[in-house]
Amino acid sequence: xxxxxxxxxxxxxxxxxxxxxxxxxxxxxxxxxxxxxNEIKGIPIPLFFQRYFSLDIDMDRVFPESFARFxxxxxxxxxxxxxxxxxxxxxxxxxxxxxxxxGIGMHLIRKQVSMLIKTYGEKTTVTFAGNEIELxxxxxxxxxxxxxPFMLSRCTNNNRVRANNIIAVSQGVVEGKVDFQRLCDRxxxxxxxxxxxxxxxxxxxxxxxxxxxxxxxxxxxxxIDTHVKQYLGxxxxxxxxxxxxxxxxxxxxDAEARSxxxxxxxxxxxxxxxxxWRREIKKLQSF
Length: 287
Description:
Layout: E1 3-4, E2 12-16, E3 19-25, E4 31-34, E5 39-40, E6 43-44, H1 45-52, H2 59-62, H3 65-70, H4 72-78, H5 91-100, H6 106-120, E7 123-128, E8 131-136, H7 141-145, H8 149-153, H9 160-174, H10 180-183, H11 190-198, H12 205-215, H13 226-236, H14 247-260, H15 266-281
Antiparallel strand pairs: 1-2, 2-3, 3-4, 5-6, 7-8
Helix pairs in contact: 5-9, 5-12, 11-12
């Protein structure tokens, strides 16, 4: 989880794989990264963040020329959002964060995840620009698997069911029942990834697709929520979008989206469409 630096709001801070990072954006393709390490997960810092922020993804593949021809007005509206990038995040952190996010607003989501990190994560104090700053690792699966449900529910807006689901899925990771290495295998069909993730309590199709998109690097995963359903109906004239969102209609909408988006990048494109819809049409300010 990235936090705004309280001493200088241009910088964000986080810990990735035990490495403390302070970062600020210079342009859509350039970032200033401050860390005492040269590598993360054995990858040199510049290469790691090029991949982490998906700077290796060509937007012409996400929205090919054919999309611009079929939807010229929408293309112009989307242009401002092409600099948005999907971060390739840790799969366990992504899974738990999205399990905390069900049915609540962004402010409360950040509050819940922040409480979870500060309650169960390991604290590190680092000095940056002359200021001592406390950072927290995201808690490992073993720590959450052993958590007390009542104590953990304090980090899930007092939702005991959600706390129990987080504990159960963390135990699954510890025991190898949730195998992220296997789930990251590009040879595994997306439908199978979704099915395996959805076997866990608290993870439905939408959360499974969010985990795949943001945590497993599956840019073909297309999460569908109310906003996505709305823009599919308004911008792409889907009649299925007029129906309530059920597992059956979810899969139909998923298939429809792949008929007018590049299937390999449907989720990446959907993320940009999602933010454009929220800001330009719904006039929402928060991401």
